[in-house]
Structure formats: C-alpha cells, structure tokens
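The material for today's practical consists of a large collection of protein records. Backbone structure tokens are a discrete shorthand for how the chain folds in space. An example says more than a description, so a record of this kind follows:
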Amino acid sequence: EEKWDFVLVSDIHETGSEKEKKRKKFLDELSKKGFIIKKIEDTKLFYGVRAPQQVFWKYQCLLGKPDKKLQSENSPQDIPVTTRIRIVHFILQNTVTPDLEKLNDLMKKKVFKAAFPLHEKEAVREFLKEKWARWRGLFNEQPIEKIRCYFGEKVALYFAWLGWYTYLLGFAALAGVLTFVAGITLFSSSQVSREICEANTTVMCPLCDKKCPYWVLSDTCTYAKVTHMIDNEATVLFAIFMALWATVFLELWKRQRATVVTNWDLYGWDEEEEELAMELINNLQHEPQKYQHSYFRSTIVLLLVLLMITVLIGIAHALVIYRVIARALFAQSSLGLLRDQADTVAVMTGAVLHYLTIVIMTKINRRVALFLCNLEKPRTFSQRENNFTMKIFTFQFFTNFSSLIYIAFFLGRINGRPGHYVRIAGRWRLEECHPSGCITDLFIQMAIIMLLKQTISNVMEYLIPWISHKLRKKHKRPQKRSIILGEEEEAEDPCKRQWLSNYELNEVNVFSLFNEFLEMMIQYSFTTIFVAAFPLAPLLAFLNNLFEIHLDAIKMVRLHRRMVPRRANDIGIWLQVLEAIGILAVIGNGLVIAITSDFIPMQVYKYMYSPCVGDNHTDMDCSTGYINHSLSVFRIRDFEPDVGKPEMLPNFNRDEITECRYRDYRHADDYTYTMQFWHIFAARLAFLIIFEHVALCVKLIAAWYIPDVPQKVKNELLWRKHTDLRRELSTMEYSTEV
C-alpha cells in the first residue's frame, strides 16, 4: 500500500485559468524539493504528497534522532509518522511560489480547498477506535502512549491533563456534595429560616413602585430555607478546601507532566531549536527572524484590549438593566404566579440571556483577539498562539463572569433605601437582596449557566460534526469521471477511496485543540472562583468531563480529519492561566464569603448583639433575633411623593400601617448608618484580609511541600547525563589510543 504524508484538494479549474496556474506553480515548487506527487480526479482534484527521505535524514542529523523512543525496533532508521506529518506540514506551509504566495494564501484564494494528513488503517488507530473512541469505554484508562503515537505530544498532553483534572475533580465533587448535604440538614432547622417563616406580622417595604404591595416576611419562607441551605458555616470550610485543592491539583499535575515527558525523552526539548532546524531543511538560505518589541504597538494593543473589556462590562450593565426592568414589569403582571415570583423569574431569564450573550460574544471575541494578534506581529507560531490565548481568555473571562461579579458583589448594595432609591433613568429602581441574602441569586445564575453550557454545548459539539459527516457521505459521486488535460487515470486507484473518505470528514484547524483547552479553562474558573456560592459546581464539572474525554476522542478519531501532530513537553501558557485562576479563586471566594454571604453579619450579631452576650444562655441559639436586628425601620410618610403610594395587602388597613421594614442597618429617625453597620463592615474587611492571606500562605506552603519534579525523574535525568558524558569520554579515549 502506498503511503502519503499529505493530501491537497482542489476544485477542477478551467484550463489556463488563474487558479489553475497558481496551483501548478505551487506543485512545481514541491517537485523541485524532491516531493513525489500523485493526482487522483473525482468531483475534486486530489494530490497526494510524499516527501523525499533525505528531508527526514537531515532532521535526524540536526536534532540527533529525537524520536528514538518512537522508532520501530525492526527498522530504527524509520522516522515516526507523527514526525513525518509535522515536517511535511511545515514545508507545505512555508513553500513560496514565484508569486510570493504560500499555501495559506492559495487556500484563501480558493486555489486549494483543503490540505490534511490521512487517517490510515494503522494498528494504533484501530486500537484507539475500538478501545478509546467509544462510549462504552467511559471509565477505561486512557491509552496516553498510543494517543501520542497517533496524534502527537500536544494532543496526548491535553488528554493526560484532562484525565488528571477529572480524577482530582472527583475529590472536589465529593467535598461539594458533602457541603450541600450538610446544608440540606439545615433546611428546616436553621434558626434564621425559622424566624423568617414565623414572621407573619413583619410588614416589608414594597419591592417595586406603585403596583407592588407591602408584603409579609413569612411569605418568603421557602426562599429563606434554600438560602440558608447554601449559606452556612460548611461553605466557608469548603471555600478554603477548594483554594487548597486548586494548588494541590496544579502541583500534582506538574509532577505528572514531568514523569510523562521524561518517559517520552522530551524533558529538555527546545521548541525554538526544532523550528530553526525545519526552517533550514526547507530553505538552507533561511535567516532567522529576530526578536523585536515595539512599545508603540504594545500600547495600541493594550488600549484596544481595555476598550474591549469596557464593552464587555457594558454588556454586563445591559443585563443588569434588563433584570431591573423585567423585575418591575413582572411585579406588575396580571398573572399571580409571575407577580409573586417576579424576582426569581427575572434572575432565571437574566441567566438565560446571559448564556446567549456568551454564545454570541465568543465568536466576536475570537475575531477581535485575532485582529490584535495580527497587530502585534508575533515572531513565531508559538508566540502568536500564546498572545492569542491570553487575549481570548481575558475576553471570555469578562464575558462569562461580569454578570456574576455584579450579582455577587453589587446587587442590593448600591440600590439606596426606601424614600431615596437609586434609579435607572430616574425611573426603575435597582434590585434589592432578599432579607436572607443575595447568595441564592448567585447560586441560580451559576447553576443555569453551567447546566446550559455543559448540556447544550456538548450536544452541539457532537451533533454538528456527526450530522455534517453524514451529509457529506450522502453526496453521490459520479460513476464516470471526465479526463482533464488529456491525463489518464486508472479506473480503480487503491488510494482513491481512502482520500475521499478522509475528505468527507470534518475539517480541523489550528484552533481545534485550542477550543478544547479554552472550554476547560472556563469550566475550571466556574469550578473554583465562585464555588462558595455553588458547591455543586465540581460535581457538574466532573460528570461533564467523563463525557468530554470520550466526546473529544470520538470527534478526533471518527468524525474529524487527522490533526497535524505537534510536539510539546507541557501544556504551554495554559499552565499560567491555571495559576492565575487559582489566585482569582482565593480572592473570589473570600469576597463571596465576606460580602455576598450572611456569614460575617451573623457572626458579628452572635458575638456582639445576640442574647448570648453577657448572659450564659446555654439553652438558646445565639442567632435568635438576628432577622429582626438586620431589618431597618422606614416610616411610610417618607416615601417619595412623585412615586405614588404602594398597594395594600388584603388583610391590612392602610391606616394601621405606619412603618415597613427593609434589609439594612440604618437609624429609624434620620436613616443614617448604625454602629452595627460599621462593625460588620470592619469584620468583613478583616475576614477578607485574613482569609486571603491564610489561603495564599497555604497555597505557597503546598507549592513548596510538593516538588514540581519527582525525585525519580531527577535521578533518571542525572543518570542519562552521566551515561552520555561517560560514553563521549570513552569514545574520545578510544580515538586517542587508535
């Protein structure tokens, strides 16, 4: 069977057309370099490309046989298929025609439709197809070594990282479930929830203007129970655990990575050296591109990045405005259920709208990030990939988390007070927190976004390539082909069926693996940064990843064309992204507990204002009276005159109600902040500083305690250096004696 390194696909162009001339010039340049080219004609023109053997000999001579561990024992002179494909791909991409056009330029001009390496019926692929890229192998161990042999080190490291991440997510998911179960046990036993459920005489101020009536605090009994199921002491311990987990995960991954790449003999691999070697193999007269840095260009890019971030924050503000207006409209609805649950419905529809903006802005963010990378003019593909990664992750982070940041840290804190509300356009009041806190809103928002992202995205990620592949296979091929340019072709070519079946698969590009990494980084952010408000996030991520691993495997092996293998000895700049997320997780969870949660106000009440202070009430819950103490009094006569009087409840007489309660710490006479407000403010600040410093110290200690490189790997590297030096010295002494 003939082996071909790459296949180029082109439309059948008219004889003498501009596209036909450009195609011939490019193929002629390949022929000058010694490439063997085979043409097969069907509905498209297919050109099989095979590089001459001296190209690979040069590679081995320049880099000292870097693939000796992948070479066959029977034919050690053979070069691995993954390396052949990588070298040929590099030469194809950097071959220049007399018109100074490269393959990418020709593909943009539709001279060539596609260029791809072939999925061949190798033993490795058949093994991956039967044992790995199947749903029934969901809980089987991943064959990382065989993935490397077929797809290259970059893809193998992605699956090694994803498998390790999923494995350790199991421990985080278990801790999250235990935290959630501990909260469920408090569903009905919490003293704070019990006080809210029994407060049937506490009249609360209206939630909107005019049509919203006064309401009784006990009406929100269920909501209060759910809130305290999430917001309890176990959540604080879980947040600290997740900060430590993120550090341990990274440190253990560094050790795992060191072990894997040492087994591959790539620990000291130099990417720049390999790129220079391939440049020289392609063109002996090549001059290396020098490192350059332009402060002017960097300043322009920085300003444009800040402008894009401002736009993304503006979109988050638009979502806030939607929630405010929707809540006001739902509260005035004629439907009783919608009116009663106006706040929850506004939160849920806002979360769905947020998900839609994420889907739309992801496409826009990609285009903007590519444009900014082109402005920077990076020296190499790796540098371009790193620059693009940082920009797209920054944009995606603000796209995904701006709305969550508002709910966590601003909702209910900038809305003013009765009689002096902060309004949008002087009309719509900003949202308020429930008397039991805002953490349930954050819980709902995160739950909806994570469920939508992980279900809809995964379904579309599998269905679109699957349907596309099936539709392409259904295209009828002509039984008889016309002969172009007088060139004859055998009726049954053994390569034709293989090339056509590969062309019918879905296209892959340089972003195919990048997209998978980016998806996992956003998930990792959801799993760690606001996990204090959503303890089930690690569980959802764990279940998702069990399917994600095999979904990606099925796509790569069965539905997509073969990826161009890329060599790597780590996951690149994604490791820095993970470390940044780990620091943000400490800050984010500290802020959630200090600001969003009611944990700090409740502790201040217990130790400074509760009935337990001063007297030894061993039989009393120290949080007794907390709700009444956390609600301020507002005189109804102080409502704004131009807003109109709110409606009354059926069981209440307007003349009987002179006051209503609202969530804040203000005096009843002049509405200034009470001393308790400042005590809570100081306690929040102190907790935030202590929590973050303790968590960061624990992270540093864990990073120091767990070495990045196992001693076994260090000893193996030491032994290799010693063996190589001794061999060289022995060779030198032997030469001297002779």
Residues 295-331 form the longest helix (37 residues). The chain is about 60% helix and 5% strand. Residues 6-118 form one domain.
